[in-house]
Amino acid sequence: AQPDDDLRTGNSVEALRGAVMAKLAYAVGKVQADASDRDWFLATALAVRDRVVQGWQRSYHTTNTGGTKRVYYMSLEFLIGRLMFDALTNLGLTDTMREALSGLGVDLDKLREVEPDAALGNGGLGRLAACFMESMATLAVPAYGYGIRYENGLFRQVVKDGWQQEYPENWLSFGNPWEFARPEIAYDIGFGGHVETHQVDGAPRYEWFPSETVEAVAYDTPVVGWRGHHVNTLRLWSARAGDPLRLDAFNEGDHVGAMADRVKAEAISKVLYPSDATPAGQELRLRQEYFFAAASLQDLVRRHLKKYPDLSNLADQAAIQLNDTHPAIAVVELMRLLVDLHGMAWDDAWRITQATFGYTNHTLLPEALETWPVPLMERMLPRHMQIIYLVNALHLDKLRAEGHSDVDVMRSVSIIAEGWGQQRVKMGTLAFIGSHRINGVSALHTDLMRQTVFRDLNAIYPDRINNKTNGITFRRWLMEANPALTAILVDVLGKAVLDDPSHLEKLAQHAGDPALQARLKAAKRDNKATLGGIIAARTGIQVDPDAMFDIQIKRIHEYKRQHLNLLETIALYNAIRAEPWRDWAPRVKVFAGKAAASYHTAKLIIKLANDVARVVNDDPTVRGKLKVVFLPNYNVSLAERIIPAADLSEQISTAGMEASGTGNMKLALNGALTIGTLDGANVEIKERVGDDNIFIFGLTAEEVAARHRSGLSARETIANSPRLAEVMEAVSSGVFSPDDTDRYRDFANALRDHDHFLVTADFDDYYAAQRRVDALWRDQAAWWRASIMNTARVGWFSSDRTIGEYARDIWDVPVRAAE
Ligand code: 26M
C-alpha cells in the first residue's frame, strides 16, 4: 500500500500508477477488468488533477498574502479543447504517465482521444481567451477567467449529402473531471422590475427592485502554467433557478407555471450562441451577458471587501479586461454597485470604473458591432438604462464644454444610436468610454480602429487606443500538437527553447542544412500520414502524404473567402485537365470549419466544397495531382492534428477584414508557408519571416477601401479574366451540381453584381501566387529552407509575449521573469 501523500503528489511511475488505480477504484467505482477507456480517462484525469491542485493552493496563498493586483479576464467564450495533455505537459508528467499506464495495459494516447472538447467558444476570440489563460498562469499573473459554463458547447457539425447539419454537443454528459463545483459560491442576479428613488442625506438614492432573480453558481477549473509554477482559476457560472422560486405558486398548484419559470431561469447557461460575427440580437443573449458580468463583479467585489474596508482602492487591486463588447454591461453594473449599493459619489465611481476596465476589440465588420434596443434594455435592466443615459449625458456635456459641436462627431461618439425609428445602445462606444485602455489585436487592425469605427473617439482621447498583437500558446500548439517537431527543435537548439521561444531564431542558421531538412521532412510526413488516416476514416477519401497539404481551417465566412480558394481549385482542375502531362505539384486541398447555423451563404460554400471535392476526386485525369477534402466537425482537437501536417497555410481574407487571425501563427510555427493577403497579423508575419518565405497577393486594405468607393463592377473584372470567366460559368451553370443545376446560380450572380469581398478582384493575383507556390514546391530544398525560416522567425507570436504587453501597458501588473 502507498502512503496517502504519495498517491496525491508522487510523480514517479509507481506513484502515478498507484494513483490512477486508486482513482479507478474509489472515484470512478470500477474494477480494472470492467474499466472502459472512458473510465481509465476519468481515473487518469483525476490523478493528474490532484497534482495540479497542490500548485493551485500554493498560488492562491501567495496571491492572497502578497497584496498583488489581480487580473479578471471576462469572456463569454473560452474555447479550451481538451485539458489532459495541457496538464501533463505543463507538469512535465507526459512520459511518466505513459509508462505508468502502459504497465496497466492502457495506452495514454488512446485515452487522449476519449476526452470531449470543451468547446465553449466559436473561433478566434474564444481560443485567444484559452491561450491567454494558459499564458497568464505561465507568467504567474494572478488571474481569474470569468465566463459561462454552457451545458452545450458549439454544435457538432455533421455533413450530410454535402450540407452542414448541427447537432447538440453535450460535453458534460459523462462528467467533467477538471472542474470543482462550488455550490456555496452563488449570487443572486436580478432582471426586470422597477427603480425607486428616495432621499439619503438630501441626495437622491436609487434602488432597483428586480421582478425576477436567477442564481449564478460557480464552477472552478484550475489552469496550470508551464512547469507548474503557478495555477490560476477559470470560474464559470451556471444558472440555477432562485430557490424559493415561485414556491408559493407551486404550493398553490401552479406546478406548470413554476416549472416554466425555472426552465426560463436555467436556460441562461444552456447553450453557446453559435455565431462568430453577426449578433443574433436575442433577449436570451443579453440575459447571458448581464448574468455573467453581474456574477463576476459581485464575486470580485466580495473578494476585495474581505481585505479592504471599502472600494476606493479597487483599481489598484483589480484589472478587468473585456473580451470584446460581450461583457461591456459590466461597466454599468460596476457603476451601479459603487453608487447605488456602496453610496460612492458618481465622479469617484466613474474614475475607479475607468481605471479598472480595459476593452479589446476583435472585429470592425459593421454587422458584428453589438447594439441593443433601448426598449429591451429598459425592460430587462431598468436601472442600467438610467445609468447609461447619465454616463452618456455627462460624456457629451464634457465634450461640448471642451468646444466640440460638430453634429456628426457628437452622433458618432454618443452611446445611443438614433434611427430606423428605434434607439439602440452601442456597446463598443460604452466599452470605450468606460475603459482607460482600448486595444486592437494586430498592428493593421489597431490602425483601422483609429481610422474607422473609433475615429472620432480616438481624436478626442488619442492615447487610449493601443495595439496588442495576438499570440498563441506554444505549449499546446507546438509541444502538445507536434512532439516530433519539438524533439528536433530541442535537439538542435537545446532545452532552453521550451522556456524561451527567442531561441528559435538560431534555427535560421541551419535553414539550408540538408540533414535538418530531411529530419523535418520525415517528421512532417509522419504527421501527414496520421492526418491521412483521419481523413480516410471521416470521409473515405485517400490522400497521398507526399503531396502538398494545402490547408484552410477556420470558421466559414464570406470575408475569409473559402470560395476564393474553391474558385482557384476549379481553375487548377481545369488547367490540369487541359494539360495533364505537365509536372503539376501534387496537392491535397483540405477545408474545415463550421458555418453559423443561420448563415445561408456560408452553408452553401460548404456544399460547394463538397460538390467540387466529389467531381475532382472522381476524375481519373487528375488522379495523383489534385484531391479536395472537406473535413467535418472542425474543433480544437482536430486543429491539433491538421496544423502539424500542413505545408501551405491559406490566410486569404479580404484585406482589412480579418482583425488578426491566430491560425496563421499556429501554421507558420509548425513550418507551413503562408499564402495570404496583407491582412491582420499576416502583415506582421511577413515582416518577420521575410518576403521570400511567404506568398503575398491581392489588394491592400487601402486599395480595398478605394475599390469599394469606386463602385467598379465585378462583371468587368470577370470579363477581363478568361480563366475566371470559365470558372464562374462552370459553377453558375451547374457543372458541380448536376443534380440541381440552379444550386449556385444566385451565388454566382451575387459575385457578379456585388462581390463585396472582392473575390473576383483578387482572383488572378491569387492564381498567380498559387503557381509560385507550385514552383517552390518543385524545389524541395528551397521549400524546406523557407519552412525552417518560418518556424525560426515566429517566436514573437507566443501569447507569453502578448500577455507580457497587456501586463505592462494595460493592467500594470508584474510578470514572472523568464527562466
Ligand atoms: C456576438 C453576439 C451574439 C452572438 C455571437 C457574437 C459573437 C461571438 C464571437 C461575435 C463575434 C465573435 O467573435 C469574433 C471573433 O472571433 N473575432 C476574431 O478574434 C480573433 C482573436 O482576436 C482574431 O484573431 C480574428 O481575426 C477575429 O475574427
Could you characterize what this model shows?
The chain is an alpha/beta fold and 819 residues long. It is 49% helix and 16% strand. The mean pLDDT is 96. The chain is built from 34 helices and 24 strands. It starts with a helix and ends in an 8-residue tail after the last helix. The protein has three domains: 1-66 and 90-115, no CATH class; 67-82 and 117-469, 3-Layer(aba) Sandwich (Rossmann fold), CATH 3.40.50.2000; 486-795, Glycogen Phosphorylase B (Rossmann fold). Helix 14 (374-380) packs across helix 15 (382-401). The strands form six sheets. A nine-stranded mixed beta sheet has the order 7-10-11-4-1-12-13-17-18. A six-stranded parallel beta sheet has the order 21-20-19-22-23-24, sandwiched between helices. N-[(biphenyl-4-yloxy)acetyl]-beta-D-glucopyranosylamine binds next to helix 7. Its EC number is 2.4.1.1.
Q: Can you say what the CATH homologous superfamily of the largest domain is? A: Glycogen Phosphorylase B
- Name given to the CATH architecture of the largest domain: 3-Layer(aba) Sandwich
* Main beta-sheet annotation: 9 strands, mixed
What proportion strand? Answer: 15-25%
What is the number of domains? 3
Secondary-structure content class: alpha/beta
Helix content: 40-55%
Strand order of the largest sheet: 7-10-11-4-1-12-13-17-18
CATH topology of the largest domain: Rossmann fold
User: C-alpha Rg, in Å?
Assistant: 27 Å
The total beta strand count reads 24
* Nearest-integer average pLDDT: 96
Counting DSSP H or I runs of 4 or more residues, the number of helices is: 34
Tell me, what is the CATH class of the largest domain? Alpha Beta
Low-confidence stretches: none
Q: Cα distance, first to last residue?
A: 38 Å
**Can you tell me the overall shape?**
globular
Which compounds are bound in this model? N-[(biphenyl-4-yloxy)acetyl]-beta-D-glucopyranosylamine
